[in-house]
Amino acid sequence: MRTQVAIVGAGPAGLLLGRLLERRGIDTLIIEQRDRDYVLGRIRAGVLEHETADMLDQAGIGKRMRAEGLVHDGIELCFDGERHRLDLRALVDRHVIVYGQTEVTADLMRAREQTGARIVYGAEDVMPLDFGGSQPRLRYTENGISHEVACDFIAGCDGFHGICRQSVPDNAITSFERIYPFGWLGVLVDQPPVAPELIYAHHARGFALCSMRSNTRSRYYVQVPSDDSVENWSDDRFWDELRARLSPETAECLQTGISIEKSIAPLRSFVAEPMRFGRMFLAGDAAHIVPPTGAKGLNLAASDVRYLADALIEYYEEKSTSGIDGYSERALRRVWKAERFSWWMTSLLHVFPESGGFGRRIQRAEFDYLTTSLAAAQSLAENYTGLPV
Ligand code: APR
Ligand code: PHB
Predict the structure, then answer these.
(1) pLDDT of 151-204, one tens digit each?
(2) Which CATH number is correct for 180-266+351-385, 3.30.9.10, 3.40.50.150, 3.40.47.40, 3.40.50.720?
(3) In whole numbers, what is the pLDDT of the chain averaged over residues?
(4) CA-closest candidate to residue 140, choices 8, 285, 283
(5) 234: left (phi over 0), alpha (psi -120 to 50) or beta
(6) Is 296 assigned a catalytic role?
(7) 3.40.50.740, 3.50.50.60, 3.20.20.70, 3.40.50.10860: CATH of 5-55+97-176+267-346
(8) Lowest mean pLDDT among 31-45, 96-110, 341-355
(9) Separation of alpha carbons 173 and 169, rounded Å
(10) Residue 44 Cα distances to 41, 56, 98, 170, 177, angstroms
């Protein structure tokens, strides 16, 4: 079996890369370890930066996002009950679109199925081979039968726990990591959102976030210790804790209900350098992880894919290697800026017991600076809506 670009992973990065290459006549094969329903069942944030939304349009899959996505011109920061709206549109003339990652994945899957481009679900023992040479191969097992795919390039879009990054020799890769001493307990509920825009709340009891998937389905989070367990949290306990961390007027408007999904996600910052190893490239969570505070995960996957697709298209159409030679440096420049913003926003909004009274005063000063300085507010708005790709 042969393809031009073998893509490992059918998450947003893999599917979007496949879509962009396919539209330029480049043959791809996507190899996914999970089944289709499992991939579609993942509950993930979907705050699309301006550039990401434009990319979905350019990929020919933006129609439903434009019709059903919620355009948000602002966000609310709430600090110990003190509310402050950041008008993104007024600050940087940008907005974000709230459209669940599950929906982005579904739109990309549907588009690939409509063209008949190859995708293998339920693959086992996936292994990238000989990517240091000029004839890389991808091995996998499907229904007990082993397959080997000859290809020009391998795209490792297989997420943080994927095989591609792990296949790189230790002496060829450097990782940078910060693990936070807390996680996010998230609840999905079929109730209207408590507010028309997202609310990022800092409280002495911990961080809270009020988000949404649509006008009838809401997503809420509270900071919990990293060793906490979902079993410790009844719906009632969750709603009480969320109310306690919001402003009184917001808490009063909260419409609660039975959770349809409840889970705890750990928070970490992680970057692997470089993002290219001969004929294998990493993109998305395979190369980096951000704490979800800045809603950058999906958007970083999209910008990696933009750069990688441009580089591979240039290789095939212009027989030039400058794009693929420059991919890692170009992608990492944007990755690290998003890592900085996500770390900064996490540091501003969460409770860090070990930082004591001094840390709490610094957080208060940061909030006061944000609410009194146009430059500070514009900086947050510029990063939140997305730095140039
Ligand atoms: N072989 C094949 N597929 C694999 C393997 C493997 N060995 N390991 C992982 N995968 C698949 C996973 O099942 C998943 O479907 O790779 C896909 C990776 O998708 P994501 O983890 O969603 O990563 P990415 O596409 O980079 O998207 C990043 O998704 O995880 C969120 O917060 C993240 O919003 C960000 C976005
Ligand atoms: C979400 O809706 O899941 C979400 C929104 C914004 C974030 C993180 C998560 O910063």
Answers:
(1) 999 999 999 999 999 999 999 999 999 999 999 999 999 999 999 999 999 999
(2) 3.30.9.10
(3) 97
(4) 8
(5) beta
(6) yes
(7) 3.50.50.60
(8) 31-45
(9) 7
(10) 9, 17, 12, 31, 22
Ligand closest to 297 (CA) is 1
The encoded tokens of residue 77 equal 């920061």
The DSSP secondary-structure symbol of 249 reads H
Token pair belonging to 49 = 């930066």
Gap between the Cα atoms of 179 and 359, Å rounded: 18
- As a whole number of angstroms, the distance between CA 343 and CA 196 comes to 26
Which of 31, 27, 17 lies closest to 127, judged by CA? 31
Q: Assess whether 384 carries a catalytic annotation.
A: yes
- DSSP-derived 3-state class of residue 296: coil
- Pocket of ligand 1, beta carbon within 6 A: 8-14, 31-34, 39, 44, 101, 123, 126, 157-159, 162-163, 284-286, 297-298, 301
Q: What pLDDT is recorded for position 297? A: 96
Q: Which amino acid is at 231?
A: E
Cα 140 to the chain's mean position, in Å? 26
Domain with CATH 3.30.9.10 in the chain: 180-266+351-385
Q: For residue 98, which ligand has an atom nearest its CA? A: 2
Tokens of 80: 């110990």
